[in-house]
Write a structure and sequence with these properties.
The chain is α+β, with helices and mostly antiparallel strands. The chain has helices spanning about 1-10, 15-20, 65-80, 85-105, 115-130, 145-150, 150-180, 185-235, and strands spanning about 30, 35-40, 45-50, 55, 60, 140. The chain has a domain at about 1-15 and about 80-130 and about 145-240. It contains 8 helices and 6 strands, in the order ααβββββαααβααα. A hairpin with a 2-residue loop joins strand 4 and strand 5. Helix 1 runs antiparallel to helix 4 and helix 3 packs antiparallel against helix 8. The radius of gyration is 23 Å and the shape is elongated.
């Protein structure tokens, strides 16, 4: 059952991507209402507004038509792909919840897993909240992927332990109720437990593959943004001192 919880939480964690996507984020990146901003020391250093005007330290750059077009394409890509990081938390939470929902319904005891479902939702929301500030802006924090391998991984493991305990408690509560009601005996309970583990493992494996594919696709998109940023810096040299990505 511990494997089930581990995999379920893994669906809502981005730590796997951190190990395979060779992109660094040296500064906080804010995305909100058509605007992209790069922050340094808590203040916007580089801003691309909703009209694709570019400002550095509050001063607007004078861009020609080709530069403006390149900025627009780049800004659109950043706004499209980066928020998908937070979207993965929603997807992972939904998939993990779906697995536990199937378990509870197969046992006819949804109330036994109510706390587990609440925890899955709670941890999913916490993961998503890492990408939004109090103003509701999407924020890709500086050193995001490095933190995934350290601080976020520690939080993930703590959450995994708690969910593991609650999942096992829920499962045995449901099976024990069946025994008390005379629906199954001890041997049948053990057999049902084994059958559930196999079924859940298959479901989790399927969902894990879906999330891995989504992670790989998103990583490819962000790598493309990093390359596009290098090209943009060649076209607009003033941007070289304020990077969104590093490879």
């Amino acid at each position: 059952m511990k494997k089930v919880v581990l995999a379920g939480l893994l669906l809502s964690s981005s730590s796997v991507w951190a190990q395979s996507c060779p992109v660094s984020v040296p500064n906080d990146i804010h995305v909100n209402d058509g605007k992209v901003s790069v922050y340094e020391a808590g203040k916007p250093k580089l801003v691309i507004d909703e009209n694709n005007n570019v400002f550095i330290d509050g001063k607007k750059l004078d861009l020609n038509a080709m530069q403006q077009q390149a900025v627009a394409a780049y800004s659109n890509g950043v706004q499209e792909f980066l928020p998908q990081m937070a979207g993965m938390a929603d997807t992972g939470m939904a998939l993990a919840s779906d697995v536990m929902d199937q378990v509870s319904k197969s046992l006819g005891s949804e109330e036994s897993f109510a706390k587990v479902q609440t925890l899955i939702k709670q941890y999913g929301e916490q993961a998503k909240a890492k990408f939004y500030n109090e103003k509701g802006e999407f924020v890709m924090p500086a050193n995001t992927f490095e933190n995934m391998d350290t601080q976020w991984q520690t939080e993930f493991e703590q959450a995994m332990k708690q969910l593991s305990v609650e999942s096992i408690a829920g499962l045995f509560s449901a099976l024990s109720n069946e025994m008390k009601n005379g629906e199954i005996n001890l041997t049948e309970m053990q057999s049902k437990f084994s059958e559930l583990k196999t079924n859940i493992s298959e479901q989790v494996q399927k969902h894990s593959k879906e999330m891995a594919a989504q992670s790989n696709q998103l990583c490819t998109s962000v790598e493309g943004l990093a390359k596009e940023e290098n090209q943009l810096q060649q076209l607009i040299p003033q941007l070289k001192d304020t990077k969104m990505f590093e490879q």
